[in-house]
Specification:
The protein is α/β, with parallel strands linked by helices. Helices cover 56% and strands 15% of the residues. The longest helix is centred in the last third of the chain and has 42 residues, at 114-155.
Length: 197
């Protein structure tokens, strides 16, 4: 018997949205064979967001044809928090364009060829993580720029001096600069709301 402290860590945690049981079974088997884990399943587009919220998968595989509508619409409802791979037998240009607009990151064609699953999911999960990091980095830079601007206005500082002050405060407190910048912005909004005496 193995050591219970060594817990299985799946390659990916996958949610499947497909009303066709044989298709779900094929995806389930391919995910398991590749070292992944199916953590949630739905048969309707309207259930997709709830399954993603509850199961917290690394990736969602969503069929195009669902009994309550189009899988692309269901995908659009979850792509902000998790990458979506469309599972379809259709490759029409209009479908591909709609999928891109919805934020779908890749396609798997029916019938599923298990050898294509692992590279597709690896690539999608890595690309989504990189995109998320870039988005977060951009948001953090915007926060730092806003805080720097507030310091420049409030204390009549040059851009360089405002940046130096933020950096010094971050180093002295051993906190990321973005946290210091957020504190400056919160402080600014609190003092702006105080009544003048």
């Amino acid at each position: 018997m193995g050591n219970p402290a060594l817990k299985f860590s799946p390659r990916w945690r996958v949610a499947i949205v497909d009303d066709h049981e044989p298709s779900r079974a094929a995806v389930r088997a391919a995910v398991t064979a590749a070292g992944g884990e199916v953590v949630g399943e739905a048969t309707r587009g309207s259930e997709a967001a709830a399954v993603v919220s509850r199961a917290r998968p690394d990736v969602v595989i969503c069929a195009v044809g669902l009994p309550d509508g189009d899988g692309i619409a269901a995908a659009a409802g979850v792509t902000a928090g998790v990458p979506v791979v469309l599972f379809t037998s259709h490759t029409r240009d209009e479908l591909v364009a709609r999928a891109q607009t919805a934020g779908v990151m890749a396609y798997l064609l029916k019938p599923l060829r298990p050898a294509e699953l692992a590279p597709t999911l690896d690539l999608v999960v890595a690309r989504f993580a990189e995109t998320s990091r870039l988005r977060q980095s951009l948001e953090e830079r915007k926060v730092i720029e806003r805080a720097k601007g507030r310091l420049m206005d409030r204390l009549d500082l040059s851009e360089e001096e405002a940046f130096r002050r933020l950096r010094r405060a971050a180093m002295n407190s051993r906190r990321p600069m973005v946290e210091i910048a957020r504190a400056v912005l919160v402080s600014e909004s609190v003092t702006a709301d105080l009544p003048r005496i």
